[in-house]
């Protein structure tokens, strides 16, 4: 009888996938490339502080492949930005959906000319332009752009999304019937359990060895020392081409009863950061490992992800052995199962919290002698036993103690406010040059300080150490050519540099007129065009930059063309 119910559950789950796909038009959208669709990443894959919101389509490690409109519609928006999507096109379709194509090199000729004209008119490279339906209509299969590697891209590919035009929610494109071969089931490589009496962050994950037997996975009896636990699963999906993809759907059963499930069908950009409450963030940040919780953390409020009422929290009321089954599936219905058992073998003491506990759904301010750290009620996904302290810094540019705010292995959901009292007084010019420098462990961030009484204020959305820095340095750019030299290459490149923070403002003028330089990571690149043709002679280039502190520098270079 148990086998019958398990089979019925699997049939119902696969039927649910088919039903979900039938909610969306099948085969309405075409492949946006002229080569077969091959996935480098799928919808819902785990990324830093967000779910992957579309498909990453392989372009065979090449740039400038033709990108085609997936269906009839009109160009409703374009973006040009340093990070993020880089160059992107949005096409709105008459059936209520919008497709997005990102990391492009160039747009089709008429659109590219329009964007360039707008950039010169605004004297601004970064753009976010919306269009009316009649301006740039497109037909299915029409060339709209050339693929590239712009923005926050680590290699040539096309990022492709399908959104609900009205709600702007991103939808799982694999539910729309694209012909992408996939006969490979998800691969399970780890199982973890968590003591849920206090928080998943303390004491953290307890590893369980997973064994593969044929097409199934097993683990020995999981013996736990807490009567309240939850599980997490380390797994990847595999398309036929072998890339590691995100898990589409998971179900957790105890003694044959479903106690938790999730599926990744749609997510909005407003909610995508809730990913940090769906994974073991500590393992992701520290070990670069994706472990997805098979339970709901108390501060995780992502809609349409898990079934209401199924928390995944297991309350063990006895010392009996209980059956555990985990079922993972991809959109095609390829299924993997892990079967194990769980038993309470005694109760060890739980975490002893201190007074600095930040809980989900409760705001709190924690203070040290010279700092205040204020969290909103949405700050954390699970309880955090906060460790906050301060200590001196010997660097001559540092003008405060270093404030340690717990550690960067615990996430926060939204911006929290840090106020720090400097260790000396300043005149007004110096006050304008104060920044907050945050160290996250793997990288740093600097923000312009805002004075609030005798303290300097800034906002951040990660934990780590922060200090006040007086930055009197000037930003600069270095030319990639010899001063006054003849340029025969296709572009001019300037390398940006700052002592602290970033170059937040850049302006180039050639012979007194604004010139369109693109921002490529920390470099600034001008591709020669009709503004500076070959044989045009000697030119003077004036570059004005400003850094995070607001310090401005003007440099002049010459070259011949």
The number of distinct helices, counting runs of at least 4 residues, comes to 4
Q: Which blocks of ≥5 consecutive residues have pLDDT under 50? A: 1-7
Number of domain modules: 4
The main sheet comes to: 12 strands, antiparallel
Keywords: Signal
Protein name: M23 family peptidase
Pfam families: Peptidase_M23
GO molecular function, one term: metalloendopeptidase activity
Summarize the structure.
This protein is mainly beta and 561 residues long.
Report what the structure shows.
Residues 51-108, 131-166 form the M23ase beta-sheet core domain. Keywords: Signal. Residues 1-21 form the signal peptide. With 561 residues, the protein is mostly beta strands. It has 4 domains: 24-176, Distorted Sandwich (Glucose Permease (Domain IIA)); 187-344, Immunoglobulin-like, CATH 2.60.40; 357-470, Chondroitinase Ac, Chain A, domain 3, CATH 2.60.220; 476-560, Sandwich (Immunoglobulin-like). Strands 1, 4, 5, 6, 7, 8, 9, 10, 11, 12, 13 and 23 form a 12-stranded antiparallel beta sheet that branches. Strands 16, 17, 18, 21, 22, 26 and 27 form a 7-stranded mixed beta sheet that branches. Strands 14, 15, 19, 20, 24 and 25 form a 6-stranded antiparallel beta sheet that branches. Strand 16 (211-213) and strand 17 (216-218) form a beta hairpin. The longest helix is centred in the first third of the chain and has 21 residues, at 2-22. The protein is flat and about 85 Å long.
């Amino acid at each position: 009888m148990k086998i019958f119910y398990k089979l019925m559950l699997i049939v119902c789950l696969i039927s649910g996938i088919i039903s979900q796909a039938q909610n969306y038009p099948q085969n309405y959208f075409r492949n946006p490339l002229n080569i077969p669709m091959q996935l480098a990443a799928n919808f819902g894959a785990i990324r830093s502080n967000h779910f992957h919101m579309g498909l990453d389509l392989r372009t065979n490690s090449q740039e400038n492949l033709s990108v085609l409109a997936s269906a009839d519609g009109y160009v409703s928006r374009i973006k040009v930005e340093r990070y993020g999507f880089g160059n992107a096109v949005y096409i709105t379709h008459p059936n209520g959906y919008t497709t997005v194509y990102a990391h492009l090199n160039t747009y089709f000729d008429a659109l590219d000319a329009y964007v360039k004209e707008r950039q010169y008119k605004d004297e601004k490279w970064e753009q976010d332009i919306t269009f009316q339906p009649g301006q740039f209509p497109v037909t299915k299969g029409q060339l709209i752009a050339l693929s590239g590697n712009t923005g926050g891209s680590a290699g040539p590919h096309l990022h492709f999304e399908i959104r609900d035009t009205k709600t702007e929610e991103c939808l799982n494109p694999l539910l729309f019937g694209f012909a992408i071969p996939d006969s490979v089931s998800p691969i399970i490589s780890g199982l973890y359990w968590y003591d849920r009496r206090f928080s998943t962050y303390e004491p953290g994950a307890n590893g369980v060895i997973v064994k593969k037997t044929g097409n199934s996975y097993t683990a020995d009896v999981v013996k736990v020392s807490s009567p309240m636990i939850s599980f997490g699963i380390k797994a990847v999906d595999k398309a036929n081409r072998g890339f590691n993809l995100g898990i589409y759907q998971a179900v957790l059963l105890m003694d044959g009863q479903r106690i938790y499930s999730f599926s990744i069908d749609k997510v909005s950009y407003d909610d995508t950061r809730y990913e940090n409450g769906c994974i073991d963030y500590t393992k992701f940040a520290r070990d670069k490992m994706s472990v997805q919780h098979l339970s709901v953390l108390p501060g995780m409020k992502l809609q349409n992800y898990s079934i209401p009422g199924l928390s995944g929290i297991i309350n063990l009321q006895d010392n009996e052995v209980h059956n555990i089954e985990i079922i993972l599936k991809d959109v095609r219905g390829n299924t993997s199962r892990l079967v194990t058992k769980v038993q309470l073998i005694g109760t060890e003491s739980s975490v002893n919290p201190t007074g600095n506990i930040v809980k989900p759904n409760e705001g709190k301010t924690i203070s040290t002698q010279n700092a205040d750290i204020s969290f909103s009620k949405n700050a954390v996904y699970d309880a955090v036993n906060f460790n906050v302290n301060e200590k001196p810094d010997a660097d001559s540019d540092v003008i405060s103690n270093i404030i340690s705010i717990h550690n960067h292995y615990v996430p926060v959901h939204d911006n929290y406010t840090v106020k720090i009292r400097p260790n000396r007084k300043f005149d007004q010019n110096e006050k304008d040059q104060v920044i907050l420098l945050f160290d996250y462990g793997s990288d740093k961030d600097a923000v312009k300080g805002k004075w609030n009484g005798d303290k300097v204020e800034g906002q951040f959305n990660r934990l780590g150490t922060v200090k006040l820095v007086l930055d009197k340095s000037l930003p600069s750019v270095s030319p990639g050519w010899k001063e006054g030299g003849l340029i025969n290459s296709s572009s001019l490149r300037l390398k940006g540099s700052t002592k602290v923070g970033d170059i937040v403002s850049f302006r180039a003028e050639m012979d007194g007129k604004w010139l369109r330089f693109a921002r490529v990571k920390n470099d600034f690149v001008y591709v020669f065009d009709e503004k500076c043709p070959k044989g045009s002679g000697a030119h003077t280039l004036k570059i004005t930059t400003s850094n995070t502190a607001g310090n401005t520098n003007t440099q002049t270079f010459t070259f011949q063309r």
